[in-house]
Every structure is written in structure tokens, then in C-alpha cells.
Amino acid sequence: MYNQPVIRTLTGQICSVEALARWQDPEMGLLSPYLFITVLEKNRLIHKLDLMILENICYTYNEMREKGLPLHPFSINLSRLDFNEMDMLKAISDILEKYNVPSTAIHIEITESVMLDNTAYFRRIFDSFHEAGFAIFMDDFGSGYSSLNVLKDYSFDVLKIDMRFLSDIGMRSKKILSSVVNMAKAIGIHTLAEGVETREQILFLRTIGCEMLQGYYYSKPMSSEMYIDYLTNSSITVEKRSESDYWDTIGKVNFLSPDPFNEISSDDFPIDDTSILRESPTALALVEIDGKKVKFQYANRAYLDEIKKLGYNSTREMEEAIESMPVVYFQNINEQIEMSLKTGKLIKKDHFANAVYFTYSTKCIAKTDNKYMLAASIKTFDPARTANREQMFEKYSRILIDTYDHITIIDHENNRIITRLYSKIGFNNEYLTMPLDKARILFAQNEVIESERERFIKFTDIDFVKKHIEKAENPIIQQPFHIKNQDGKFILRDLRIIRTTVEDGERFLFVIQSMSPAAQKKALEALEETSDMFN
């Protein structure tokens, strides 16, 4: 038995290994299976070779387990004639039981020629293997004329694309490979390209979303002894078994679909059912959230073009910015991501950063332990549209000013009032010249009715504000207060403190709004019901 690793495209880790048969002849040296497989098949001996390879797999698996090496699945090739000679499921299961190896550690590879005849018979066999916990790979896709019929008639877990049937990686080959990967993902089958030999092939296969790679670029087939030494001393790592389902789920994402987040059914799917997601080459990224660490596992060219408009030349620059800047700088996006992780739904929000308006779309597509994978799409507004948007902001900001009686910007970290944006109540300017903690106490004495001054001081305490904003998961808290008008009368008004995030950190808006008599009555009733807010 010789072993050739299969590499997960996104991580560069070993996710499985194909077990291959080689004949070490004392005179002719190492013989390729092409020289002896047909002879064994002709003489109805191929099942003995295949079961011998399986025993070798079990031996190697247990040796890896004894040495404390990370375990992974092995795949074994079965011949059409194997099924004529015996009950292969029982024979395989007996060997695995003998060596205490789980069925999930074995993948069954079958070429399309196995299934040319007797469709119903082989469909029953495949169903039995699936029920027993085995994954089934369709090997050498593209090498025969009946491949599409086979895909229609049978349920496969993985489609192995034979790169050798494409003599080069020119434009024609790229179109064929893209179509195959797109088709496989559309019907829910994972993709593996074998025979990968060049860096150019790898970059292209990664771009189109092919999930797994196998070939001489990574490693030639090795004897079990050489492979165990390779695992022990090589810098390459093996995928954690606990994360295999996580990466398989992410692998269902279709990078070539024309619609970034086309859910083919309703939103009533369970949170962890991410198979409904289909993604697009237009500004698409896969972003992994591991605790507080953010890592881009994939970003297509369109996504890179979009983030350049935000001032980032690469996803690495963006990762470094997220790592080095205060969380508050990305507060709005962080809140969107939290909502994505919590609900499992597609979340779209508009943002403004580095003088650029953009819409960000996020959806949690997989999770394991405390790691999450987000599919993310970004769309910036072009300069002409942005200019128009700014004009509209200016136009409608006047309506906002007309809505409120007073707007002040507070910098709580530096204990100051930055500026008074607008006021038609006529407060004294001296509040702007003193520290925030003194200003709010003086404001209470001068502008708030005596019976409500203590409540006002508690309400405007920043620690109190933050606590209740986080508790309510709402960036706004509000209470009614009787505020002195310019004629000296105390009028019941709605007071709001709004948390917002700007480029230089977290700020709060102190906003006062007039109330109708009916609204005043309701506000006082609501205040009585929520009086424990200050206890």
C-alpha cells in the first residue's frame, strides 16, 4: 500500500489520504497498478488485492493511533468485479471490526465503469454503504462517456475530477473545470481534483471553489513507513476530525453562482442548515471568527477591489487593522456580525467608514466549538451615487434638526462635551466649557425640575448608560424629564442618549425632543412601570 495525501484547499491541511496499490518486484522494481490490475481482474483475484489494501490501511491507522499522530480517513478503490465475488460490505465491515477501525475512517472510491449495468443493484449497494457510515467517491470523473448519467442515478459524497484528461490549464480547460465544480455544488456533491501538479492549477482550483486537491505538487505516493515519517517530521498539519464537518459545510459554498446569497427556500430553516446558501464571484469572502481573531479564508477579486476603495490593499491589511484598532471603531460591523452569528440569517446593513458608504451582507454558514465562518459580501457606492447620497443626507438632516429641540455630542472617555450641534431651547454656553461630569450636575440644577434632578444625574451617568444599552442590546436609552424652556417654564420632553461610533472612537448623542400631550401622558405612565430601572 502506498499513500497519497489529499489537501483541503482553503486550509492547506491534510484532510484524507488515498490508499494506492503498488507491486514491488525484485527484478523490475516498483510497478504501476496499470500493469497488474487488469491481470488480477481477468483472473478474478482483484477482490483479494483490495481487501489486502484495506488490511494495510487498518494496520497503518492503528500505528498512527499508537504513535499519537492525528487521525484522518483513508480512501480505498474498489473494482466492479469485487461486488461479483462476495458481499463487499460484509467483508469490509468484518476487517474494520477486527482492527477496531470505524467506518467513518474509510472512503469508498468507485469508477463510473462499475455502474454501467444493473443500476438498481448498485444503487442498493451504495445505499447500504451509506447506511453503514461510509462515504462514496466517484473516481476519475471525465474519463468516460456516461458520467452525467451516473451522477443522475447515484448518490455520491465526493466527485473526483481527473486533471489528467485536461492536457493543459488553458482557457478551454478552465471553462470545463468551472462548469464541473459549479454543477457538482448545485447538486450537493463535494469536489476533489486529482493529478494536481502546478501552482497555477492550485490557484485556479481554489478560485473556482474546488474543495480538495491531490497530486504530485503536494506529494508523490509514499509507503506507509514513509508516510508516518512524513507526518512526524513534515511541517504540514492534519485537519482535526472535529472540524471536518465544519469544513465540509463551508465547502458547499458555490463561488460561481450568480446570486451571492440566494436562499432556495424560506427563512424557516434551522440556524445550522447552511446548505441553502449559494454564493457569487461578485465581492465575496469567507471570514472566520475565532474568539476575537478574524481571518479571511477566501476573498475573490471583486471583494479585493471593493475593500481597496475602503483603503485596504489586501485582506491581510484588513485583518491587521481589525487586530490593532479599538473594537469601538468597528462597532457597527461587529454588531452586524453578532446578529449574523446569533440568528444564522442573512443580515444586510449600510455603513460609513474611511469616507466611503457601503452595504455589507453577512451570513453564518458554519460553526464548530467557538469558531464561526461567515460568508460576506460588500458593495461600495460609486462616486456619483455617493455624492448624491451625501446631498440627500444634507437635505434630510434638516428634517432631523427640525425633529429635535437639542443635539449635543459627548466624548465620555475624555470627560468633555465636544460640541452642541443644534439647540432651540437656549441653554447656557458655559456647559460646553467645563468637564462633562460637572456639566451634567450643573445642567440638572439649572434646567431640570427639582423632583427629577436625582433621576437625571443617574440617567446621564455614562456607566449607567453603557450598562443599560448592553442589557437591552439597543444603542438608545430614553426617559421623559421636565426641562426648563426659555420662558422659565418646565416642559415635559423626551430625553435620549444614543451611542454611536465614528472614526475616532465611541461617542454619545444627548438629544431632547418635544412631546405631544398624548405622548406626555403615555411617557409618564411608562416611567412609573419602569421605575426600577434606577434601582
Explain what the structure shows.
There is one protein chain. The protein has helices spanning 37-42, 46-66, 82-85, 88-99, 119-131, 147-153, 171-186, 199-208, 224-233, 244-251, 301-309, 315-324, 331-343, 383-403, 436-447, 453-459, 462-472, 517-529; strands at 2-8, 14-20, 23-25, 29-31, 74-78, 106-111, 135-141, 158-162, 190-194, 212-214, 222-223, 284-290, 293-299, 347-353, 356-368, 371-380, 406-411, 416-423, 476-484, 490-502, 505-514. With 535 residues, the protein is α/β, with parallel strands linked by helices. A hairpin with a 5-residue loop joins strand 1 and strand 2 (14-20).
Topology, pairings included?
Elements: E1 2-8, E2 14-20, E3 23-25, E4 29-31, H1 37-42, H2 46-66, E5 74-78, H3 82-85, H4 88-99, E6 106-111, H5 119-131, E7 135-141, H6 147-153, E8 158-162, H7 171-186, E9 190-194, H8 199-208, E10 212-214, E11 222-223, H9 224-233, H10 244-251, E12 284-290, E13 293-299, H11 301-309, H12 315-324, H13 331-343, E14 347-353, E15 356-368, E16 371-380, H14 383-403, E17 406-411, E18 416-423, H15 436-447, H16 453-459, H17 462-472, E19 476-484, E20 490-502, E21 505-514, H18 517-529
Parallel strand pairs: 2-5, 5-6, 6-7, 7-8, 8-9, 9-10
Antiparallel strand pairs: 1-2, 1-10, 1-11, 3-4, 12-13, 12-16, 14-15, 15-16, 17-18, 17-21, 19-20, 20-21
Helix pairs in contact: 2-4, 15-16
